[in-house]
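INFO batch 0412 | record 1 of 1 | parsing
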Amino acid sequence: MTTQEIIEVIKGLTVLELNDLVKACEEEFGVSAAAGVVVAAAGAGAAAAEEKTEFDVELTSFGEKKMDVIKLAKNELGLGLKDAKEKVESAPTIIKEAASKDEAEALKAKFEEAGATITLK
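INFO prediction complete | emitting tokens
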């Protein structure tokens, strides 16, 4: 992949996806990105993303603790055990649509604590 192809992929990311990418790069390479780099890379898309008030919460992966994630899905999403199991095992899947920013971030934190991978869209 060329540098230009990588830049084109980055241009297509939302601010939240870009933030996740920066964090992943920091962890992978043991460095800290300068705040100016993130702002420059976000560009004009940052203003539009800041206005977003509703998010879809996507369970990307249930990780290694599937039973913990199923229990959490049952409790947090108000599902029966069978429905929670089916929802978790069908990852990647949207587990909550049109959630407020606070609700989406809270769900993300809880599911990630249980070992799942969550993406906010």
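INFO post-check: The radius of gyration is 16 Å.
INFO record closed
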